[in-house]
Amino acid sequence: MKILYFECNMGAAGDMLMAALLELHNNPSELLKKLNNIGIPKVNVTSAPAVKHGITGTHVKVLVNGVEESSDMHGHSHSHGHEHGEHKHHDHSHEHSHGHGEHSHSHSGYHHIEHLIGHLDVSSEVKKNALGIYKLIAEAESHAHGVPVNQIHFHEVGEMDAVADIVGVCMLIEELAPDIILSSPVHVGSGQVRCAHGILPVPAPATAHILRDAPTYGGNIKGELCTPTGAAILKHFANEFGSMPIMKVSKIGYGMGKKDFEHANCVRAFVGETTDSKDEVVELMCNLDDMTPEAVAFTQQLLFEEGALDVYTMPIGMKKGRTGVLFTCMCKHDLRDKMINLLFKHTTTLGIRENISRRYMLSRKSEEVQTQYGSVRVKIAQGYDITKSKPEYEDIAKIAIENALTLADVISEIPQK
Q1: What pTM was computed for the model?
Q2: What's the pLDDT tens digit per position in 374-386?
Q3: Is beta strand 2-7 parallel, antiparallel or unpaired with respect to 180-183?
């Protein structure tokens, strides 16, 4: 199993996360070239070596119309409200520990961000993840300002900078293709920061809102270490927060922040493999005796589409001699509440039981092999001194139909692992 682990001992910002992931990529310059040509207006992204406390890493710079984002723009927004009939601009700008300086720029709204990302020349998966991250930011800023999401606005330079950081991270994660993404507890900094409204606590309200339910800590470093953009990227992608797991690390990336502290200001990203893997899954169960088979099948398919690991039914006998089904959904811990909501919404059950199960897994990967009839994807599972392989059903079925063969005929043409 391929694991990506973020170490956030000095917090996280979008540019730091992108820089760390760039160091894990086999061709960083090619990735940046692609990023600069996907259609983000007026943006140019570059990277350069940076040294913090004797450690060499990468610093990413995003220029918008030749101007680099400043501390007051990165990941922060402001709302547009109405007071006594006047249109007031609530400038949510303040200094945080990964930036410098101030600029005055125009701004646009959340729906503009949605439109922009939706029209970028990237995959649908990158668009989906980028929009999911921006939704976390917009909802947090909406909560912090007490206004609807459609009244949240972003500074032009900070907006485009954050789009570049977020989309760049999404592109890198798509190409690195980890099976699971983990993060350490997040160091958010401590103390207070000055903004246009006065003095705000650290973490900033939007960052604190995004990182609810994630482990965070303050420490002795004064200043804002984790930006809303960094927080949203971690919250969106991290399957779990905790200690680094047992893994065979193959590469380490260092993403450097702008400012200097007594500690090296960087995010570290580790990528590696585990072979003998185990984790915990949630089993949600309910008994059903008053649903049609079609309704049960519909719910099964919906849960799979929403991220369930497995969904299955078993015939059971219920009270008063009625036949029924035991409906079971297996999922990760972070999807438990979502799956419970879907089960109550789409089944007739009035109660759901939960078991926490330990799961042992073989690491999995997919390879493409050539046969005389065309290519076939083969799933390979390894671990515990065992290797198993199995061709993708859709591939062999397609070949069998097109060539009037049996499935066994096609399978016999596939080299055995």
Answers
A1: 0.63
A2: 889 998 888 777 8
A3: parallel
